[in-house]
Design brief:
761 residues, 14-stranded mixed β-sheet, outer membrane lipoprotein receptor (LolB), chain A, Pdz3 Domain
């Protein structure tokens, strides 16, 4: 129960989601559940459509009030905002009108990553995908006889189109960028299907399977107009590649293009295996194609390019550094890199320094967390140039800014996207998607990238004519800069700002003092159904155990198989799932725990996007380590026994020794069932309370001080009954699939792993 706070904070950072308040910094609050607290609704009756829209409005307003990262609400009084917009919402005559009202309301906050995305946007995208795939099937049947009419949506199973799979590792091998409103090929994979078909850099992809990309962009922007045309244009090129040009094995795609002579042509290309595999960036989201490239440009300069920050990039980047570390200069190409998992930043940056790199600060709603990149054993020591463009966003912007502000790199290219607010999305009752930020990011030099972006040291824009001539002006400028010995003379770490300039941030690039909060109005009590726990009342208890408390403890131990059976457990391992709420979004991860008495315990959370997050106790150390390369030695505040998942059950076998005083305090309703509560003190004087189900005799809750753990779903394990459902306070719900008792545990579970970047050679 003690591991979960740190582990989930790390998971949050790994996923690129800053937890609003790290668990170890939360103020303790009393958990209360003597009886059920029911939700009370006093809303006036409304017609169903009005009620649906009003519910969506309240969901948005409450989310901003409770989860939005800026508690000052940009100096707005958020209660007044509700009063102002509530009548407008109730008077809205359609969902579309409501979405416009909500867009204007949240627009008052003047932040990015705040958007109401109407369902029409997704419908337009899905319609285009369906049309592309339907035409593809027609081409497959008879490439010379394709009906230009739109596919019949009611044509039956023959035209039912499965969504294209972005994880499919077959495509033509191109990258696209929007120059104006035209999709221009900016890169081709060497020896790719696109290259062999005659496509070249600078060519414009005009149609995919006869579907006009220009028309598609126009359709989407109609609905995106109130949100951000710039935002959608940054990401649509990658979506075209992932959802339209890529596809299944042994399939073809018809590509309409405009060549160097402005002639419209068409070519039919067979999709071939792509070099890299797809990766999952966010749990429960589809995989996305990863692209990574490294090579030597000449005797003194190396080159590394990747399109996202993700777990597989760490190993590839490390191997590339191993091959290129003797070079005098390195070009890191982040053009088109839309970000990814933040945990990659300290790993990659750590391979570019001999000391450490200050990555900036995660600014939460109530606190902040510094981000550091300590040097890795394997690192590059030469000069660095980073290439960026207007699609370089999020983690990629943070990475580029950190390298420049720490005196490790110069930046060449175009102004970056300026999108550095970690955000989450929720679906509204109207079908719209609400996106909102849960944190801000401040660079080591006090800059807020959000809403501002990064201005390169040398600004060079994409030029289609140069691309057609086989030139990459931005790359050429980087090579020239690395050859100029004087270019890096003035590159040094920036001066860090004082504490007075470290506020929430205006989102306009420069740090700003935290504005005074608006005058808060008293909020009405909101009654909600809380997790079942036990209220611990500060009071004194007589020494020893009264008869009732002994009875409930003994009845429980008998019900689960006897005290001696529990004491006989010398080791155990469990597998299952853990449900957590990070930044307002629900996530489910694979969970394992291992206990080897007397002094070894480990919990392992597996995240599909980044691998394992391990927190381990042994007789010598307590540490946290991830496959993503984060490693942290932790103080030995607790012992392995303290952290043990089943500690409360083991403790009750020694209740006389561990709890000098315990007294029965009554029977209370708990989720419709009667629970007997005994309260008392531990040896160090900490308040403790146990709740036992009166009917089953099972332990259902332990509250120690302000930490609450609930138990349920007891199942037979050998001769014992053990809980398969364990809820750890507000943080997580562990749902076990298996519990193995007294089976051999691999000693490597309790040993630190060694990664590529831990080896200097």
């Amino acid at each position: 129960m003690y591991l979960i706070g740190r582990s989930l904070l790390i998971v949050g950072l790994i996923l690129g989601v800053f937890a609003s308040v790290p668990a170890q910094k939360r103020k303790p609050r009393k958990v209360i559940v003597r009886g059920n607290i029911a939700t009370v609704s006093t809303a006036p009756a409304m017609p169903p459509d009005v009620q649906r829209r009003y519910g969506a409005f309240m969901q948005v307003w409450l989310t901003i009030r409770d989860k939005y990262f800026d508690p000052t609400f940009s100096s707005l009084n958020w209660d007044d905002i509700r009063t102002e917009y509530e009548p407008k919402v109730k008077a809205a005559r359609s969902d579309a009108e409501l979405h416009d009202i909500l867009g204007v309301m949240i627009g008052r906050l003047n932040r990015s990553h705040l958007a109401i995305i109407p369902p029409e946007v997704y419908q337009a995208i899905e319609a285009v995908k369906k049309e592309v795939k339907a035409k593809e099937r027609q081409y497959a049947k008879s490439p010379l006889e394709v009906d230009d009419a739109a596919p019949d949506a009611d044509a039956g199973d023959e035209n039912e189109i499965e969504p294209a799979d972005p994880s499919a590792q077959f495509g033509i091998g191109v990258d696209l960028s929007l120059i104006g409103d035209r999709f221009v090929i900016t890169r081709l994979d060497p020896n790719s299907a696109a290259e062999y078909s005659g496509l070249k850099r600078g060519y414009i992809i005009d149609k995919v399977n006869g579907v006009s990309l220009t028309d598609m962009l126009g359709r989407i922007q109609i609905y995106y107009a109130a949100i951000s045309k710039t935002h959608v244009k940054q990401y649509i090129p990658a979506e075209v590649v992932a959802w339209m040009l890529n596809g299944a094995r042994d399939t073809y795609v018809n590509v309409g293009y405009i060549d160097e002579n402005e002639q419209a042509k068409e070519v039919r290309i067979r999709r071939e295996p792509l070099k890299d595999k797809g990766v999952v960036i966010i749990p429960n989201f589809p995989q996305y194609p990863l692209s990574f490239e490294s090579r030597s440009l000449n005797d003194s300069v190396g080159y590394i390019r990747f399109n996202m920050f993700a777990m597989p990039v760490n190993e590839k980047f490390c191997n590339a550094i191993g091959e290129l570390k003797s070079k005098d200069g390195l070009i890191i190409d982040l053009r088109g890199n839309s970000g990814g998992v933040l945990a990659s930043l300290p790993i990659l940056a750590g391979m570019l320094t001999t000391t450490s790199i200050d990555l900036g600060t995660a600014v939460y709603r109530n606190t902040s967390e510094p981000l550091q990149a300590p040097s890795k054993a394997k690192n590059f020591r030469g000069k660095i140039v980073v290439l960026v463009n207007d699609s370089t966003a999020s983690a990629a912007e943070m990475f580029a800014m950190a390298l420049r502000e720490n005196g490790r790199a110069l930046i060449i290219g175009e102004h970056t996207a300026g999108e550095a607010l970690p955000s989450v999305t929720v679906k509204l009752a109207t079908g719209a998607v609400f996106q909102y930020p849960i944190a801000n990011y401040r660079s080591s030099g006090g800059k807020y990238i959000e809403g501002s972006g990064i201005e390169p040291d040398v600004r060079i824009s994409l030029d289609r004519k140069a691309l057609l001539d086989g030139k990459d002006l931005q790359l050429d400028a980087a090579l020239k800069m690395l050859a100029d010995k004087s270019a890096f003379l003035n590159l040094k770490p920036v001066e860090k700002p004082g504490a007075e300039s470290r506020g929430i941030g205006t989102g306009s690039g420069d740090a700003a003092p935290l504005p005074p909060p608006p005058v808060a109005k008293a909020k009405p009590d909101v009654l909600t159904r809380l997790p079942a726990a036990v209220e611990v009342v500060k009071r004194t208890f007589p020494p020893g155990h009264d008869e009732a408390s002994r009875k409930y403890i003994n009845d429980f131990l008998t019900a689960i198989g006897g005290k001696e059976g529990i004491k006989a457990i010398s080791k155990y391992s469990v597998t299952g799932k853990i449900d957590v709420d990070l930044g307002g979004g629900s996530n489910t991860f694979v969970f394992k725990a291992f206990r080897d008495k007397p002094d070894k315990y480990a919990e392992i959370t597996s995240v599909s996007s980044v691998g394992e997050v391990r927190e381990v106790y042994d007789e010598k150390q307590h540490y946290l380590q991830t496959d993503a390369g984060l490693e942290r030695d932790l103080p030995r505040i607790f012992t392995a026994a303290d952290a043990d998942l089943l500690t409360p059950i083991f403790e009750l076998t020694a209740a006389d020794e561990l709890f000098p005083s315990l007294s029965f305090t009554g029977t209370f309703d708990r989720d419709g069932r009667k629970a007997a509560v005994i309260e008392g003190k531990t040896k160090d004087g900490t308040d403790v309370a146990f709740a036992f189900d009166v009917e089953t005799k099972m332990l259902v809750n332990l509250t120690r001080s302000y930490r609450s753990t609930s138990f349920g779903d007891y199942r037979k394990v050998g001769d014992l009954f053990l809980p398969f459902l364990i809820e750890r306070g507000y943080a997580a719900k562990v749902r076990l699939d298996t519990i193995s008792v007294n089976q051999t545990i691999d000693p490597a579970i309790f040993t630190k792993k060694v990664s590529c970047f831990d080896r200097p050679d």
